[in-house]
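Before relying on records like the one below, remember that each one covers exactly one chain. Contacts with other chains, cofactors or solvent are not represented anywhere in the record.
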Amino acid sequence: MIFRSTWDYYYRFSEFSKWLKTISQKTQLINSKNTIQWNIDKHYLLDLRTKSIHIAESYFIEKGSTRTMDELHKQLVWTETVLKPCVSGTARHTYRLKENNLEIHEAILKNLITNEAMMLQPFQYDIVTLGEVSMVLFQRQFSHAVLKVA
């Protein structure tokens, strides 16, 4: 089975996880259940970094954290950032933060962090002006790339 078009898994993640476990026991998936689970959660970026693969700077805010946006920005010395869930898509709960709007987003973070891990990254200006390239590999071999433009 080719795994694709799961556009709402992040809204119904618990239900999706149960379905994935069930379907992986009943059929052969082209990408294994473990690979799919690994790729769904942006913590996989940490695995890539340990393998010396360049990733955007990323700070993970784990579920239940009590750190504030102001504390994190000062610690990381980042002035403009993007806050997003570790499991997400279609820009769900993705926020562009600047020093002048951190307080406004503090309540949003406190609400979200009670249920899920979040991540903070420096804002990447090139994504707005040039777009973002997604590369597709099959059996570790480059196939093609897609330019995603905001």
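Residues 1-40 form one domain.
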